[in-house]
Amino acid sequence: MKWIPNFNSSNSLRVIFVIAVFILLFLSSIAYKHNQDLNESSKLVMHTYEINIQLERLMSAIKDAETGQRGYIITRNARFLTPYIYSRDKVNTSFITLKKLTADNPQQQENLQKLFKLITLRFVSFENCLKYSDPKTYDKRKLDNHMFGGRILMENIRFKVDEMNDIEKTYLKKRLKIYDAEISLSPLFSISLFLVALSFILLAYRQISRDFERLKVFNKRLLISSGLIAESESIGNFSTWQWDLDADKIDYSDNQFRLLGFEPNAFVPSKETLLKFVHPDDKDAVAKSIDGIIENKQVPFIYYKIIRPDFEVRYFKTTGKLVTDQQGSKILLGINFDITDEHLLNIELQERNKELEKSNKELASFNHVASHDLQEPLRKIQTFISRVSDADKEVMSESGKNYITKIESSAKRMRVLIDDLLLFSRTNTTKKEFIKINLNELLDNAESELAEVIEEKRAVIKSNKLPKLSVIPYQIEQLFINLIGNSLKYSRPDIEPEISISSEKVNACDYPEIVDQSVKKFHKITFTDNGMGFDPQFKETIFILFQRLHSKTDYPGTGIGLAICKKIVENHKGHITADSTLGKGSVFTVFLPD
Amino acid sequence: MQKNALHILLADDDEDDRLFFKDAFEEIKIQTNVNFVHDGMQLMDHLHNEDNKLPDILFLDLNMPKKTGKECLIEIKKTDRLKDVIIAIYSTSSSEEDIEDTFIQGANIYIKKPSDFNTLKKIINEVVTVNWHYHTSGLNRDNFLLRLK
């Protein structure tokens, strides 16, 4: 569906988010590791210091023992011996602690073992010093020796303790170095990673807010267009509905409810309601069409009636189309038109058409009446008069003879009238077959038809070349006969009639008030005579049926001839005009489309 | 009845026309036997009755009760025994449609009933003296309608 805006940024958004989350997870795991390592190293430092402290305690205990012994040897006071006696325990306690602390380090264990031996030797030397300093067993040389030996032992012990401390320090240093190496990522790198993640998130945020803006714009447009649809539905008297075939859910537009004679959302539409309002006459057809929807994927226009709740019958026209939406569900979209007004108008038009046809038929039968039935009695009157022989007339009175003559001329006039009227109506009702023909040929025919009168009046007819046009030949011939005949009839008695006929091609735009502008080019055929002419004020009225400018005793005529001319020209989508100067002559101009 | 006289049959429902016709034939100096029928049914009965001699020329009015002239024309042209009878349409109407129809259906000539008795005589004279064999072979749409010179 094209009208759904494409928010394809959602995919890139997803990628950005996943990357950002991974970076953050990575950073936090590094931070965790860092923390752990820090913890470890501080423990290690503590461990080293503890060992250091224990070793110092060991040393101080031995020193205490030494000081106490020394005090005892000088003063012989037993009180000085107390630290010496306790020092042994203190040394043992420290020793056990140290053994535990260095359990993971074989080198230190070994050193500790050596230290232990040295301390044991130191205590043996203490014992010996005490023994040889005792007045009972006093031996100056041996005491000096042992005192000195103790001194050296003490040096060795200190040396060993320092060595152990050094080892521990080196070890600490090494471990700290390892930890530092393990935290391979520099803070700068972490920060830049963090910044990347941050910028990704910002990018995503920007994209989201941009999409949101677009969504807002589309939403607004959607709102406007749905408002427009609702409005146009109510103006145009149509409505829309959609039928989700998979979910079997039907939605009506507001106007659909109104067209059915309800307030919007007055009921929940279902498959059954589609048929519910349909007129009983049309139910089967509509039901069939609904069943055919799924097979044919679309509904051709169906026409049916519905009955509104107030029993008003309306005429509907419905069409539909099956579409598949983005989620793949089949939806039938439909449009309903309320064509009641058109339908009623149509019926009215049909009725009028029938009436027209009827009146046309009546007209045709009138033609028949005129051509046959009306002529029949007239013909008989004329025939009977013709049978009144000269011998019969001899015995008649003058007035009787006069009456017979009057009847004869009246009947003759009646005949001319009927013939002209028939001619007039036939120019309209007979078949109009257009044939491309040279108008000169038709003019020749017309002249030969009028040959008798032309000769009698010694008329001169001049014409230049006429065009070849697609016309109804016998009608144009009639037009020429009538126009020339007219000029001959209303010629001046004192001069010989002269009629000149000329033709030229003209542009319609040069005669905006006269001819139909939808045709570009016209042939303008002019008939100019030197006859008696007429008052120009009658130049329009002379084309009207039965309009005559002269009394019928002066110029017998029916007033139909020029009306026929007008009709013929109109049949050819042309135009005819007349102009004249009284006593000088007339000009008849015929415009025929090219 | 004279043996070599022309047999003329007029089918016309109008009494006056039959009278004009009869008088006209009496006044022209050609030996003819003129018979009349009053409508289409009577005409067909007359023609189908083999006791009656077939007319040399049938003058046929178009507008007749019971069976119109056109219907009779079609029926005659369909019947083998009758189809060679010379048929002169004799009608008040001079409508293009009637002339066209009867020409197509095989009538030999179309006469518009004249409004002058002398003209009628001239027409009848023309029609009965025409060489029908010659006329029929040269018959076309233009000379079908009789025009007096």
Automatic annotation (TrEMBL), chain A:
Keywords: Coiled coil, Kinase, Membrane, Phosphoprotein, Transferase, Transmembrane, Transmembrane helix. Residues 369-594 form the Histidine kinase domain. The lineage of its organism: Bacteria, Pseudomonadati, Bacteroidota, Flavobacteriia, Flavobacteriales. PROSITE patterns: HIS_KIN, PAS. Its EC number is 2.7.13.3. SUPFAM superfamilies: ATPase domain of HSP90 chaperone/DNA topoisomerase II/histidine kinase, Homodimeric domain of signal transducing histidine kinase, PYP-like sensor domain (PAS domain). It catalyses: ATP + protein L-histidine = ADP + protein N-phospho-L-histidine. The chain crosses the membrane at residues 12-32, 183-205. It holds the Pfam family HATPase_c. The keyword Transmembrane helix applies. It comes from Flavobacterium nitrogenifigens. This is histidine kinase. PANTHER family: PAC DOMAIN-CONTAINING PROTEIN, PHYTOCHROME-LIKE PROTEIN CPH1. Residues 244-297 form the PAS domain. GO terms for molecular function: phosphorelay sensor kinase activity. It is an enzyme of class 2 (transferase). The keyword Phosphoprotein applies. Residues 436-463 form a coiled coil. InterPro entries: CHASE3, HATPase_C_sf, HATPase_dom, His_kinase_dom, HisK_dim/P_dom, HisK_dim/P_sf, PAS, PAS-like_dom_sf.
From TrEMBL, chain B:
Transmembrane segments: none annotated. The modification 4-aspartylphosphate is found at residue 61. InterPro entries: CheY-like_superfamily, Sig_transdc_resp-reg_receiver, TCS_response_regulator. Keywords: Phosphoprotein. Residues 7-128 form the Response regulatory domain. It comes from the Bacteria. One of its GO terms (biological process) is phosphorelay signal transduction system. It holds the Pfam family Response_reg. This is CheY-like chemotaxis protein. It comes from Flavobacterium nitrogenifigens.
